[in-house]
Amino acid sequence: SAVISQKPSRDICQRGTSLTIQCQVDSQVTMMFWYRQQPGQSLTLIATANQGSEATYESGFVIDKFPISRPNLTFSTLTVSNMSPEDSSIYLCSAGEGTGGDEQYFGPGTRLTVT
Amino acid sequence: AQSVSQHNHHVILSEAASLELGCNYSYGGTVNLFWYVQYPGQHLQLLLKYFSGDPLVKGIKGFEAEFIKSKFSFNLRKPSVQWSDTAEYFCAVREGYQAGTALIFGKGTTLSVSS
Predict the structure, then answer these.
(1) Could you write out the DSSP letters of every residue in A10-78?
(2) Rounded Cα distance, A31 and A38, in Å
(3) How confident is the model at residue B55 (pLDDT cuts 50, 70, 90)?
(4) What's the CA angle centered on B79, arms B33 and A104, to 5 degrees?
(5) Mapped to the 3 state alphabet, what secondary structure does B13-42 carry?
(6) Which residues are B68's β-sheet partners?
């Protein structure tokens, strides 16, 4: 199994600023995913990050707002740019091979509050 | 696009009662199926998974789930719940054998168990 850590665990940010969330996996993984969990809601996939290629974004999420880096097989970052209160959410990093027979592991999440 | 439906938004049970949480998905091809649990203040944990084979799968903490392909369902069951089972439960689906495919989550079911 993979163990995933995220930094920061929580933050309170002002409107208009940006926050970069780091995700570290304790083993090499092909696929990393970023999810958002808004208060009282389920997890919504933001994007899939493959090492060495551009992230693939889901409908409703754009690179300018949520730029992602994936410099190697154990690390990824998600930036929430030009934040507004609507971005207040828990952001989760996930990792796995993404193929049949594979589990997907989740980090503890980053709780973001935008004021 | 795939979708996952969880029928119960909030379930309230007394200790020792039996539990069944419904989950239906929309994808017609090969799927991997998961149930995750999120205890208060904690991150997502995998309860059980189905990839192939015996459609009745057993997970941790006495939970089990049955995959019924004809009904596109993967319902979670536990014969006798405990107060410590109070948590949010998420059903998730992934298209099988597709590299780079993330999990799609249902909206979640909140389980409250009174002692």
Answers:
(1) EEEE-TT--EEEEEEESS--SEEEEEEE-TT--EEEEEEEETTS--EEPTT--TTTS-EEEEETTEEEE
(2) 23
(3) very high
(4) 25
(5) EECCCCEEECEEECCCCCEEEEEEEECCCC
(6) B73
Which residues of chain A are within 8 Å of residue B49 when distances are taken between CB atoms? Answer: 103
Provide the β-strand partners of residue A85: none
Q: A59: nearest CA in chain B?
A: B1
pLDDT digits (tens, 9 = 90+) for B70-102: 999 999 999 999 999 999 999 999 876 565 678
Q: Which amino acid is at B28?
A: G
Amino acid at A111: R
What would the pLDDT profile of A40-77 be if each residue is shown by its tens digit?
788 999 999 988 788 999 999 999 999 999 999 999 99
What CATH number was assigned to the domain covering residues B4-114? 2.60.40.10
Query: Both tokens of residue B66?
Result: 């049955």
Contacts B100 to A, Cβ<8 Å: 30-31, 48, 50, 56, 98-99
> Which residues pair with residue B23 across a beta bridge?
B6
Answer yes or no: do B107 and A42 touch at CB < 8 A: yes
Residue B94 tokens, joined: 């992934």
Q: Are A78 and A92 in contact (CB under 8 A)?
A: no
Cα angle, residue A103 at apex, residues A101 and A107 outer, rounded to 5°: 165
Domains of chain B, by residue range, sit at 4-114
Q: Tens digits of per-residue pLDDT, B1-19?
A: 678 999 889 999 999 999 9
Question: Is A6-114 a domain of CATH 2.60.40.10?
Answer: yes
